[in-house]
């Protein structure tokens, strides 16, 4: 109960967006929503009003998902004494625009940015390894990726009896965003976790990718979640046996 009260106090004091973050969010939302709505600017020919309407709908989707994604990272950071600040990645956004034009909107490249971690010294007193660690950084970052898969799973449950195209688009956007985000490319979340712990990264990578694929397919959500975790464990074990154990010697060094 005390930890929840402490977290509530941290959120009240530190859950604030800087002007640079607000600008980054706005630019990221405009670019990502344009990318995912690129093919919806008229069916047979260009239609400005239809395009703007679909861009607006896409912007609502991106805003919701991006805020939840960042909220998971910020709350995860504050819970252990760090403040996560969103930083848009201009090259990643430009790459997304280039692919949208070249592929005529068929390929979504979603690389909006990453986070910068600030050490809240007064809230780290008494913690083991007082300073900022790579593993903690990675786990804070990947909390956003897990949130994306969670959003996709929740909307798939809601949409199971509705068949709403807008909800389908939210699910698809979350899944593709999560798969891109777990890639080990700086400044994406996957790169933070990769440098923090390769073993943890191996498990999270396969779990996120498999969960995303299963959520897109016509499979029960519980089966998708537990199936992805099981496959993630198997891939994690295979990664250890065939690479990590040999790279570091492990408990059974090769003779």
Report on this model:
- The chain is mostly helical and 255 residues long.
- The protein has 2 domains: 2-181, no CATH class; 197-249, no CATH class.
- Helix content is 68%, strand content 5%.
- The protein has 9 helices and 2 strands.
- It has a two-stranded antiparallel ribbon with strand order 1-2.
- Helix 5 packs antiparallel against helix 6 (165-181), helix 6 (165-181) packs antiparallel against helix 8 and helix 7 (189-196) packs antiparallel against helix 8 (198-216).
- The chain is globular, with a radius of gyration of 20 Å.
- The N and C termini lie far apart (52 Å).
- 38% of the residues are buried.
- The model has no long low-confidence stretch (mean pLDDT 89).
The low-confidence runs, each spanning 5 or more residues with pLDDT under 50, are none
Q: Which sequence of strands runs across the widest sheet?
A: 1-2
What are the secondary-structure elements, in order, as H or E?
HHHEHEHHHHH
Separate helix tally: 9
Biggest sheet statistics? 2 strands, antiparallel
Give the structural class: mainly alpha
């Amino acid at each position: 109960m005390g930890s929840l009260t402490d977290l509530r106090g941290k959120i009240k004091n530190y859950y604030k967006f800087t002007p640079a973050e607000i600008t980054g969010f706005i630019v990221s939302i405009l670019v990502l929503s344009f990318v995912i709505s690129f093919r919806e600017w008229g069916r047979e020919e260009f239609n400005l009003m239809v395009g703007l309407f679909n861009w607006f709908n896409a912007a609502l989707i991106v805003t919701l998902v991006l805020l939840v994604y960042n909220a998971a990272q910020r709350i995860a950071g504050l819970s252990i004494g760090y403040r996560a600040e969103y930083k848009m990645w201009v090259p990643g956004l430009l790459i997304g625009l280039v692919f949208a034009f070249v592929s005529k909107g068929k390929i979504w490249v979603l690389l909006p940015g990453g986070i910068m971690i600030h050490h809240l010294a007064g809230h780290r007193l008494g913690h083991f390894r007082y300073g900022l660690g790579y593993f903690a950084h990675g786990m804070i970052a990947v909390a956003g990726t897990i949130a994306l898969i969670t959003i996709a799973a929740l909307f798939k449950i809601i949409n199971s009896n509705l068949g709403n195209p807008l909800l389908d688009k939210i699910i698809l956007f979350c899944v593709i965003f999560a798969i891109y985000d777990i890639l080990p490319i700086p400044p994406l979340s996957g790169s933070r976790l990769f440098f923090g712990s390769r073993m943890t990264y191996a498990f999270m990578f396969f779990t996120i990718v498999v969960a995303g694929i299963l959520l897109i397919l016509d499979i029960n959500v519980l089966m998708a979640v537990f199936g992805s975790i099981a496959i993630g464990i198997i891939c994690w074990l295979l990664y250890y046996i065939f690479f990590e154990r040999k790279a570091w010697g492990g408990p059974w060094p090769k003779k």
